[in-house]
Amino acid sequence: MTQESQDAIARRLRSARLAQGLDVAALGRELKMPQSVFEAMERGDWTRLGAPVYARALLGRYASRLGVEVDVDTVIQQVRDPELRSHVAQSRLGRVADFSARQAAYAGGTLLVLPLLYMLVTQLPDAGRSGQRALDPVAANPSAPEALSVDLEPAGDSSPGAVPAVLGMPSTAVAHPAGQPALPSPLVDAPPTPVAAGLAPPLPLPSSALQLRFSADSWIEIYGRDGRVIEKLLARSGEIREWPVAEVGRVTIGNVEGTTVAVNGSGVNLDAVRAANVARFALSSDGVIKTAAR
Cα–Cα distance between 288 and 7 in angstroms, integer? Predict the structure, then answer.
């Protein structure tokens, strides 16, 4: 192929691209090829394409995209294979130097690893022995006092006033003159003191009071006899509220199932004044519950 034919192929590729209004950058993104490859082919610099196998593929894809027929084989003949260079020394002295450098690297690595292995091997047995010593039972302290024994039936003195020493406690036996009865020992003869268990007894209710005890949350409305609001709130579970009967005129309870009503200390059945789970009743001055108008 002559120089004119190489330039002709390059000009045909460039003219076809410009005639189609294509940009080199856009073609690079479309064909996934560097922009410098398109510029080299349009200049006729085929040696920039690399080895013949790469030049064939790149030129074929570019010409196919532009719709230009080119003699790819003729172009490939002008592309030479890249020269392969060996990185191994060719002279005898160079090969000896490379071999010596590798051996020196191996020896240096071995010298660094061996001390670490030695320290690891020598420390492992000591760690094992120290662990065994830590698991050995603690020897008894010879200076500690001997275990105290309890002798409930002493063979010696069996008088009523004698009390044996138990668990290192001094004996409470008291010598009494002959003919006198032995005094009771405060540690043995004293009767046990009763201890009250449980909670303190509940406080007594007022002589005339309305009591609401809540086992669940419930809203309540308490009105006085003059129509004023005494209390209107949401009572919490566990609360106990009381009001004098003389002041309460009308009561509304929103959760009858979770409320216990007592008047003057006696429980009250709210079935007569209950609608669903809401109870509305009036309270007379003598503590009698009546149906209240809504």
Answer: 123
